[in-house]
Amino acid sequence: MTKSDLIKRLAAANPHLYMRDIERIVSTIFEEISAALARGDRVELRGFGAFSVRARGGRIGRNPRTGDEVAVPNKVVPYFKTGKELRERLNALDG
């Protein structure tokens, strides 16, 4: 599902709201999650999951084309851990 698909579904489920307001709400939520992660904060959405950041140490990698060694610097990457409700819902689809 893309961001525009999400907005369309929310608009269909909430016909009393204007599309522009729904777009603004969705964008604001994503911006706030991004800003919190950029600050190094953790974002927890109960029942859905938690977003956080993890540090990856630097290492020596290889250029796949030439085989030359390349220094890969330290970096911070986003991490998502599913919540219990979401995990149970996904596993219920298997059974």
UniProtKB/TrEMBL annotation:
InterPro entries for the chain: Hist_DNA-bd, Histone-like_DNA-bd_CS, IHF-like_DNA-bd_dom_sf, IHF_beta
Q: What superkingdom does the record give? A: Bacteria
Keywords tagged on the record: DNA recombination, DNA-binding, Transcription, Transcription regulation, Translation regulation
Asked if the Swiss-Prot or TrEMBL record annotates the protein with the keyword Transcription, the reply is yes
Keyword Transport applies: no
What Pfam families does this protein's entry cite?
A: Bac_DNA_binding (PF00216)
Quaternary structure (record): Heterodimer of an alpha and a beta chain.
So what family is this one in?
Belongs to the bacterial histone-like protein family.
What is this protein's function? This protein is one of the two subunits of integration host factor, a specific DNA-binding protein that functions in genetic recombination as well as in transcriptional and translational control.
Q: What is this protein's record name?
A: Integration host factor subunit beta
Q: Which organism is it from?
A: Benzoatithermus flavus
Recorded name of the encoding gene: ihfB
